[in-house]
């Protein structure tokens, strides 16, 4: 979070670099190689979570709060006052009893 980089590939005057030249296949590999070296000895840092923002598990099919143990649940960020109001009541074969005690918050 303390380092910002960008990669630009191109000519000073407008000109194509080739039919199949795009940022994802030309600039991205350079950026990845650079960042691998630049961050190799740096500890990973998370961004501080702003006040009033919560991270909760939701059902990706309904957008409602996930049930405890729901294996296909994903984490999403919400303003505290805009949380989905209820859990999904749809029966899902995607429950995983081993995850019943999994933490609900990441931060």
Report on this model:
The protein is largely without helices or strands and 107 residues long. The chain is built from 1 helix and 2 strands, in the order αββ. Strands 1-2 form a two-stranded antiparallel sheet. It is elongated.
Q: Unreliable runs, pLDDT <50, ≥5 residues?
A: 92-103
User: Beta-strand percentage?
Assistant: 5-15%
| Beta-strand segment tally | 2
Question: What shape does the CA trace take?
Answer: elongated
Mean pLDDT: 82
Features:
little secondary structure; 1 helix; 107 residues; elongated
How are the SSEs placed, and which strands pair?
Elements: H1 23-38, E1 53-58, E2 74-79
Antiparallel strand pairs: 1-2
Summarize the structure.
The protein has about 110 residues and is mostly loops. It has one helix at about 25-40, and strands at about 55-60, 75-80.
């Amino acid at each position: 979070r303390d380092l910002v980089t960008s990669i630009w590939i191109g000519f000073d005057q407008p000109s194509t670099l080739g039919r199949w030249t795009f940022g994802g296949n030309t600039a991205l590999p350079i950026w990845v190689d650079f960042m691998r070296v630049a961050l190799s000895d740096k500890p990973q840092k998370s961004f501080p979570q702003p006040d009033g923002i919560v991270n909760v598990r939701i059902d990706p099919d309904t957008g409602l709060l996930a049930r405890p143990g729901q294996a296909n649940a994903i984490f999403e960020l919400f303003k505290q006052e805009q949380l989905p109001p209820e859990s999904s009541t749809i029966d899902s074969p995607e429950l995983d009893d081993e995850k019943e005690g999994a933490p609900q918050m990441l931060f």
